[in-house]
Amino acid sequence: MSSVKVAIPVDGNQGLDAPVSAHFGHCKAFLVSTIEDGQITKTETLVNPPHSACAEPVINLANNGVQILIAQGMGGRPYMVTQQVGMAVIRGEGSTAREVIENYLKNNLSEFGQDALCGGGLDHQKH
Predict the structure, then answer these.
(1) Is residue 124 in a domain?
(2) What local confidence, expressed as pLDDT, does residue 17 receive?
């Protein structure tokens, strides 16, 4: 049985119905779903604690066993840290965590590329 933990930045604690956050580092939480053989078997919400360095959310996810991050955008530094810890990053599509996960399970998402990197700050728009 293959199993993977996938995280999505969200702006609420409504589980799969939480709205996706367009700002990775300043999201309220991460919805972490365990997927086994193409099915969601568990979901949990990890609060994004206050942090002083943009690498901290990535390290927190890695310490919680996350192997794949699905984000709509993020800065270059946290992206670099995902690569250092071996976490795959996929570009998310959808307005809720459920839509993003469904697109992931249908292989409708693309690889996260340089075009999805942003310069930081709080004036982010969804990509």
Answers:
(1) no
(2) 97
> What range does the domain containing 25 cover?
3-118
Give which of 75, 72, 112, 106 is closest to 92, Cα–Cα: 72
Residue 125, domain member (yes or no): no
- Residues 3 and 34: their CA atoms lie apart, in Å, by 7
Question: Per-residue pLDDT for 124 more than 60?
Answer: no
Report yes or no on 127 lying in a domain.
no
Report the DSSP pairing between strands 110-111 and 88-91: antiparallel
DSSP string, 67-123: -EEEES-EEHHHHHHHHHTT-EEEE---SBHHHHHHHHHTT--EE--GGGEE--SS-
pTM of this prediction? 0.87
Tokens of 41: 């078997």
DSSP state of 1: -
Structure tokens given for 127: 């990509």
Average pLDDT over residues 35-46: 95
Q: What is the pLDDT of residues 60-114, one digit of tens each?
A: 999 999 999 999 888 888 889 999 999 999 998 999 999 999 999 999 998 876 6
